[in-house]
Write a structure and sequence with these properties.
The complex is a heterodimer.
Chain A (H helix, E strand, L loop, with lengths): L1 E7 L4 H10 L6 E7 L6 E5 L2 E5 L2 E10 L1 H15 L7 E7 L17
Antiparallel strand pairs in A: 1-5, 1-6, 2-5, 3-4
Chain B lengths: L5 H5 L5 H26 L7 H28 L1 E3 L3 E3 L22 H19 L9 H24 L4 H5 L7 H19 L15 H20 L9 H28 L4 H18 L5 H18 L2 H5 L7 H19 L18 H31 L6 H6 L1 H6 L22 H9 L5
Antiparallel strand pairs in B: 1-2
Helix pairs in contact in B: 2-3, 2-4, 2-8, 3-4, 3-5, 4-5, 4-7, 5-7, 5-14, 7-13, 7-14, 8-9, 8-10, 9-10, 9-11, 10-11, 10-13, 11-13, 13-14
The chains are: A alpha+beta, B mainly alpha.
Chain lengths: 112, 449
């Protein structure tokens, strides 16, 4: 199994979610997050005081997938999240050794 | 009809219309203090929201009590040397009859005193914006009581009390440009020079945490200000209150545009905070002047206030003082501006026949306005700094550095402003009241032995 984590622009969340669901993903977790990659922060002005906001709002999407599905899902997330400008985010995956469905106790890919 | 008896003709009768109007105005002015609390509360960081709200709100308690006990007597009692009032029959408001009329008006003394009470409540609350995030709540409460006693009550007497020196000199201050705004702004400057900057001032980001709250507060202030300004004529018999009402709206609208235009040119965006701040700047500047100028004059005052205050709020970074929410930049600067512009823009057809420079009256009134502004500014600045110094050296004004960094809400008020998720609330514990076991049963549904 793999844990796919995507950190993307908040306004692309619906596209990413729809793309994953279209590929048969049954469950995902979304967290509001802040962060920065290569994109410089933006400037906000309050009564003339300028602040550089470099931790910009993002959403973090986490999906558990069977090893053979992970590549397709990652490609789908990247396509759906892309705008082509700085700040589109990152997607990565890591191996997972256990997953349990809490309601039934099923383990492994059965739990996905 | 036969004329009434000479006595009845000389004695003005209580006017139900004016009395009712003034009671509504009083309630409007009361609303300004919670409005100010929201205005300030939205501008601080999330960890000190409640403290900011409370610094204003507690004034409704403290100054109300002082006003009843001796404040009204000090501000509006029989004059001594133009400096202070005193009337032993007014201590505790005990000697005031239900239908006694305030001199020269058709409203009861009771109505006049409660209207003025709301001004006394609001003025110390204005100062709190300069002291965000860092003042012990107990020290602030004591400061409010001392400051009202030593600064506000005397200054209100100078400006509005029968026999007050500024009143006799002919300084025009319709609703509190000097007594309220210059006074509070200068006090803010005096206190921050003593207590110093917030931890991280100039380096840490200190963005407003809730601009909708700021806008809500500005809206409540604007609404309440109609009572503050139009009510200050204490009646509606000659249209001066109506002129003031119109000018309040005109100057405030123009000041919003002035501030927005400045920041659009200077910083590239019209901000919500700028619009809200411009409104307050315009309200401040029209407060002393609105009864004496024409609507076009009010428009000019508003534009000047919006632009000048937008410029002035940047000064603190250059001069290195932490006027956290710009009490000096908005209230002191706007109050001085509005008070001085009376000397130029008074038409002679408003509250009095005194005309300013632009209406053929020469500079005479301008110098009087300067005298009023300078005296209030200097006295409030020095007295407030000394009070802050006294409190700082005795009980201490500032919270510990760690408390300031972790957030003053938790350390001073034992509360959190926002709890949207409910996570991390900790274990519940009911108060150890006599009936605590019953409360525990109600909470857990268990019967314990």
């Amino acid at each position: 199994m793999k844990l796919i984590t995507a950190v993307v622009r908040p306004h692309r969340l619906d596209e990413v979610k729809n793309a994953l669901q279209a590929l048969g993903v049954h469950g995902l977790t979304v967290t509001e997050a802040r962060g920065h990659g290569r994109r410089p922060g933006h400037t906000e002005v309050y009564r003339g005081a300028e602040y550089t906001v470099d931790l910009t709002p993002k959403v973090r999407i986490e999906v558990l997938a069977a090893d053979e599905d992970a590549g397709r899902l990652i490609d789908a997330v990247v396509t759906a999240a892309r705008t082509g400008t700085l700040g589109d985010g990152k997607v990565w995956s890591v191996p997972v050794d256990t997953a349990v469905r809490v309601r039934t106790g099923e383990r492994g890919v059965e739990a996905l | 009809m036969a004329p009434a008896t000479p006595l009845a003709a000389d004695t003005p009768a209580l006017s139900p219309a004016n009395t009712g109007f003034m009671l509504v105005c009083t309630a409007l002015v009361m609303l300004m203090t919670p409005g100010l609390a929201f205005f300030y509360g939205g501008m601080v960081r999330v960890k000190s929201t409640l403290n900011m709200l409370m610094m204003s709100f507690v004034s409704l308690g403290i100054v109300t009590v002082l006003w009843v006990l001796y404040g009204f007597s000090l501000a509006f009692g029989t004059d001594t040397a133009g400096l202070i009032g005193w009337n032993p029959h007014w201590l505790g408001l005990s000697g005031i009859g239900r239908t006694d009329l305030w001199d020269g008006t058709t409203i009861p003394v009771l109505v006049f005193l409660v209207f003025q009470m709301m001004f006394a409540v609001l003025t110390p609350a204005l100062i709190s914006g300069a002291l965000a995030d860092r003042v012990r709540f107990g020290a602030w409460a004591l400061f409010v009581a001392l400051w009202a006693t030593v600064v506000y009550f005397p200054v209100a007497h100078w400006v509005w009390g029968a026999g007050g020196w500024a009143y006799r000199l002919g300084v025009i201050d319709f609703a509190g440009g000097t007594a309220v705004h210059v006074n509070a702004g200068a006090a803010a400057l005096g206190v921050i020079l003593v207590i110093g900057k917030r931890a991280g001032f100039g380096t840490d980001p200190m963005r407003p945490h809730n601009l909708p709250l700021v806008m809500l507060g500005a809206g409540l202030l604007w609404f309440g200000w109609f009572g503050f300004n139009a009510g200050s004529w204490l009646g509606n018999d000659d249209g001066v209150g109506a002129l003031m009402f119109v000018n309040t709206q005109v100057a405030t609208g123009a000041a919003v545009l002035g501030w927005l235009a400045y920041e659009k040119l200077r910083h590239g965006a019209c901000t919500t905070l700028g619009a809200a701040s411009g409104a307050v700047a315009g309200l401040v500047a029209i407060t002393p002047s609105g009864g004496a100028v024409s609507p076009l004059g009010a428009l000019a005052i508003g534009v000047c206030a919006g632009v000048l205050c937008a410029l002035a709020v940047g000064l603190k970074y250059r001069l290195g003082y932490d006027d956290s929410l710009d009490v000096v930049g908005v209230h002191l600067v706007g109050g001085v501006l509005g008070s001085l512009l009376v000397g130029l823009l008074a038409t002679g057809t408003g509250q009095s026949d005194v005309a300013g420079l632009f209406y053929g009256g020469g500079l005479g009134q301008f110098w009087k306005q300067c005298a009023g502004v300078l005296a209030v500014l200097a006295y409030s600045l020095v007295a407030s700094a000394l009070l802050a110094l006294l409190l700082d050296r005795t009980i201490g004004m500032r919270v510990a550095r760690e408390a300031e960094e972790s957030g003053i809400d938790g350390t001073e008020h034992a509360e959190t402003a926002y709890d949207f998720s409910g996570a991390g609330g900790g274990a519940g514990r009911t108060p150890s009241a006599p009936d605590a076991p019953a409360a525990e049963r109600a909470r857990t549904g268990k019967v314990t032995a």
